[in-house]
Amino acid sequence: MNTVQELHSEAMALSASERTSLAHDLILSLDTPAHFELGPEQEREIQRRVQMVREGKAPGRPAENVFADIKAKYK
């Protein structure tokens, strides 16, 4: 197995919170971190929204509806 496949397998064995943290760090590594740093208020808002999703309290919408709205708005 090559290194990327090994890393993928190991990453998928992590808990959800560990994978989230890893994904966050990887995204930040794609460009200058200063462009992606979040303030404490932004981090709290993200955590609040994640918690709402986990508790089933966030009103979701099908992605196709969201994308259709975006396309209509920017045509």
Total beta strands:
0
Structural class given helices, strands, pairing?
Answer: mainly alpha
Q: Helicity, in percent?
A: 55-70%
Largest sheet: none
List the helices and strands and how they pair.
Blueprint lengths: L2 H10 L3 H13 L11 H15 L8 H11 L2
Please characterize this protein's 3D structure:
The structure is a single chain. The protein has helices at 3-12, 16-28, 40-54, 63-73. With 75 residues, the chain is mainly α. It has one domain (3-73). The protein is extended, with a radius of gyration of 17 Å.
Please summarize what this structure is.
The chain has 75 residues and is mostly helical. The protein contains four helices and no strands.
Structural key phrases:
75 residues, extended, mainly alpha
